[in-house]
Design a protein that fits this description.
Layout (H helix, E strand, L loop, with lengths): L2 H10 L9 E5 L3 H4 L8 H5 L8 E4 L1 H7 L8 E4 L1 E2 L12 E2 L3 H6 L4 E8 L4 H17 L4 E7 L7 H14 L3 E4 L5 H6 L5 E3 L7 H13 L4 E4 L1 H4 L4 H12 L5 H10 L2
Helix pairs in contact: 9-11, 9-12, 11-12
The chain binds ribulose-5-phosphate (5RP).
Amino acid sequence: MSWGLRNRLDRVLPGLPNGTGSVMFAIDHGYFMGPTSGLENPRETIVPLLPHADSLMLSRGILQNSIPKRTNIPIVLRVSSGNSILNEDLSNEKLCVSIEDAIRLNVSAVAFSIYIGGAYEHQTIVEFSKLVNDAHSFGIPVLAVTAVGKDMNRDLRYLSLASRIAVELGADIVKTYYCEGFSDLIAACPVPVVIAGGKKVPELDALKFARNAISDGAAGVDMGRNIFQSDSPENMIQAVRSVVVQGVDPKEAYEQYKSSL
Ligand code: 5RP
């Protein structure tokens, strides 16, 4: 691994060298969902949370329009798109941001969705592989957002299949969901794995699966809705941070979350 790639990877996941978890804050949802609940005014929601996140995963437009230019937070830029929630099949994505623009935006990593078992599996795999060629030639790490076909369960069988394929294609970070038997997914996936939060669930439940993922070997969380759709996004990101980075028990972190409401 080149110096630049290693250095950027450690900036995105600063817990890696110490063996602790990292908190990536995912706010890219609008690229196909539009003004998602909780992110209607991106700047207002995101800026107060920046001091509590290790890195930020987002689209080019929100980076340019809603994030202060004088921030030091490492950026993971979503570079695939091609869908909106108005279409039934969400897997028809292609590379939509050039590596030159990603470099101009001073990003620390790029993120691309592959849809394993989806109608556009082949297209997303080929586009992803070409992105790895380009990004690696500039020392930029690539995060694979692994999605499985819409008729497939988000269980160990399919999530592990998608995660391993992402590694084989050259991913530097794999993003997946937490599932039963997660430690087997980690064992088959020799790059750092981060988990998405998925749809909003009660805060304690989100803190518990974040803790379980770290205990089973995840490098961190790349969580969105369970933070920005919480009653208090600022308290919630701090609670997630104490569980994932400091190893605080989820119940204790939840008590802290409630007491500061
Ligand atoms: C969408 C994404 C999101 O970033 C991802 O789903 C994380 O957000 P959440 O925790 O809300 O699931 O990659 O394709």
